[in-house]
Amino acid sequence: MLHNRGRVHPDTEARVRRILKELNYRTNIFAKHLKMGRVFNFGVLMPRPQQDSYYWLLPYRGIEKAQQELASHRVRASFFFFDRFNDKSVLTTGQKLLKVRLDGLLAAPVLPGSFLQFCPSLPPGLPLVFFDSYIPGVKPLAFIGQDAFQSGLLASRLMRQTIHRKKGIVAIVKILPEDYHIIERMEGFLQGSRDWPGFRTEVLELGGSWTAAEIRALLEAFYQKHRDLAGIFVTNAMTHKVAEWWKGNSARDKIILIGYDPIPKNIRLLKEGVIDFLLSQQSERQGYEGLYALFRKVVLGEEVKSRIMTQIDIITADNVDYYRS
What we know:
Helix content: 40-55%
Largest sheet: 6 strands, parallel
Oligomer: single chain
Shape: elongated
Strand order of the largest sheet: 2-1-3-4-5-11
Structural class: alpha/beta
Strand content: 15-25%
Order of helices and strands: HHEHHEHEHEEHEHEHEHEHEHEE
CATH topology of the largest domain: Rossmann fold
Distance between the termini: 47 Å
């Protein structure tokens, strides 16, 4: 009946179709693809895993995990890595990507200007999923990530609750090049820091590709101007670079240091008590969910949520050994 074979009374057919609809029946699209021997090739456009202090290794692992689970469904992830600190790298890497037949694309648009140039060159109708960050005005199939503003707001509340001084400077260390979710973290922190009696915030910009010596020099110069430094909020995974500088000045008064992401160097300094809190954006899960979103849409023909928000986790020295992202 479902394939219009044989004679079926119209009333019976209508009743069966109604029941099937109620049971959310649909033709097994995947079985058809399996019979055809089709392989689904999803592109992944993201920074090199070792960049940003190996932060990008986290979503990479999530994508690899999803690929292994979906291997029996003939799903493959083809990685295209670009240089996080080179705007032109997105475009040159993107040109290589365009030469490959893809069934969908998972991308981390952390260089928004370059991605705005690149996205219009994608084949019309190619399913596109963003993770980690987004671009206003571009409407992908789905975005997977954190509420960056809310995470910055949470960081400011943690700072206010744990800082032990009655007045002083709180520094926001903004890592360049910035993208929209970094900006929103900073704005969230500034929002939460308003009307804080006795304290004021200062924004300090550090280049993501700077050497340790360059970072130390800038931070030390900042401290010499602001000896009442009471806390530091770092907007990405490079928290350990700020922590290493402060650790080398153990004679100074304790400050509260809050940053992002459970990468090994951050975890070590968290356990040592130099970093007080790490906020996790569940980066491994973002990569994992990203590939599954393309699988559900392209292979299974299912609808996908346009926004898949990951929770904001607070990691301390006490719970880090039990944390899984």
